[in-house]
Specification:
Elements (H helix, E strand, L loop, with lengths): L1 H19 L6 E3 L3 E2 L6 E4 L4 E3 L9 E6 L4 E4 L2 E11 L9 E5 L3 E5 L1 E4 L3 E5 L4 E4 L4 E4 L14 E2 L11 E4 L2 E5 L10 E2 H7 L4 E2 L2 E2 L3 E2 L4 E4 L2 E2 L7 E8 L7 E2 L5 E2 L5 E10 L6 E11 L3 E6 L2 E6 L1
Parallel strand pairs: 1-5, 2-6, 5-7, 6-8, 7-9, 7-10, 8-11, 9-12, 10-13, 11-14, 12-15, 16-17, 20-27
Antiparallel strand pairs: 1-3, 3-4, 15-16, 18-22, 19-21, 21-25, 23-24, 23-26, 26-27, 28-29
């Protein structure tokens, strides 16, 4: 019975966390295919995931996730505004999600993330362009032992690495496979992988935490702009009306009401031109102890 109660508790925590993490007009993949194929996507309508009626960027679009082991090919300009694009759903290996560049492409987003189980792969000598001042984040390390540049991150093809495989941020050649070409030289794919991109945050915490005790929040920034970045933390979802804000990289909090709290952090570079936002769910539990006396034996048990 104790095992059953524990299982039900963590199932409910996972369910609540997943529910809170979705927003209206989020998109995620349900199959592999080309980005512009509507049937490979589903959209969150504010309550449920439903079959998409348009592809991301061809209508109102919030956050886009390549998930469920899908490989998405892209060979066109995605012109509609997209809040963020993430390759990978952080469910771990052996399932890896991939965005394959098969033709000259662009995505109108200011936030592009490669999760630890995501792979950005060039399958043609072409460019991918992101919006000017976009944040580009590569999560590392991989907890399942995947090799950066092979199993996750930007894929480096040892037999086809050349200057024509380019990632532009605005008009700047941020990286190409071997870092060659005219000056100023861009980063190599290896350098971009090792740097973690230009700016990103992968927040974590010490959840679950007993009510009234300290929640430790960690921004876990990475990227070339991370050392001089500024931070803004808020709570975007909670069991009751709740206000929290901090400009510390690693703040603390002490919620007293049991439930799930979603803490969101935004990192912004020193120039104020690049920012990256992510969130972490924290479960606040009741850890009060009740004393039960049976003859000469006293027990302390958790409620």
């Amino acid at each position: 019975m104790k095992f059953l109660k524990t299982y039900i508790f963590f199932f409910l925590v996972l369910l609540i966390t997943n529910t809170f993490s979705q927003s209206l007009n989020d998109f995620r993949t349900i199959a592999s295919g080309n980005w512009t194929t509507v049937g490979i996507w589903e959209r969150y309508n504010g309550t449920n995931w439903v079959a998409a009626t348009y592809y991301p960027g061809n209508g109102t679009t919030n956050d886009v996730t390549i998930s469920n082991g899908a490989t998405v090919t892209i060979n066109s300009a995605i012109t509609g505004s997209i809040n963020s694009v993430t390759i990978g759903d952080q469910t771990g290996t052996p399932v890896v999600e991939t965005l394959s560049i098969t033709g000259t492409s662009s995505i109108n987003t200011l936030e592009f993330n490669i999760a630890y189980d995501g792979l950005l792969r060039w399958d043609a000598n072409v460019s991918l362009s992101l919006t000017a001042n976009a944040s580009f984040f590569i999560e590392n390390p991989n907890p399942d032992g995947l090799t950066l540049g092979v199993g996750h991150g930007i894929y480096i093809n040892p037999t086809g690495c050349n200057v024509n495989k380019i990632l532009y941020i605005g008009t700047t050649r941020y990286t190409n496979c071997n870092g060659g070409g005219p000056n100023p030289k861009p980063l190599t794919f290896t350098d971009a992988n090792n740097n973690g991109g230009n700016l990103g945050v992968a927040p974590s915490s010490n959840s679950p935490v007993c009510s009234g005790l300290t929640v430790n929040l960690l921004a876990n920034p990475s990227g070339t702009d991370a050392p001089t970045a500024t931070y803004s933390w808020t709570v975007t979802s909670s069991p009751v009306a709740y206000t929290f804000s901090s400009t510390n990289e690693n703040p603390t909090d002490t919620p007293t009401i049991v439930g799930t709290y979603v803490y969101e952090v935004t990192a912004t570079n020193a120039a104020g031109t690049i920012s990256n936002t992510n969130d972490v769910s924290v479960e606040i539990t009741s850890c009060n102890k009740k004393v039960i006396t049976n003859r000469r034996i006293t027990y302390r048990v958790k409620k």
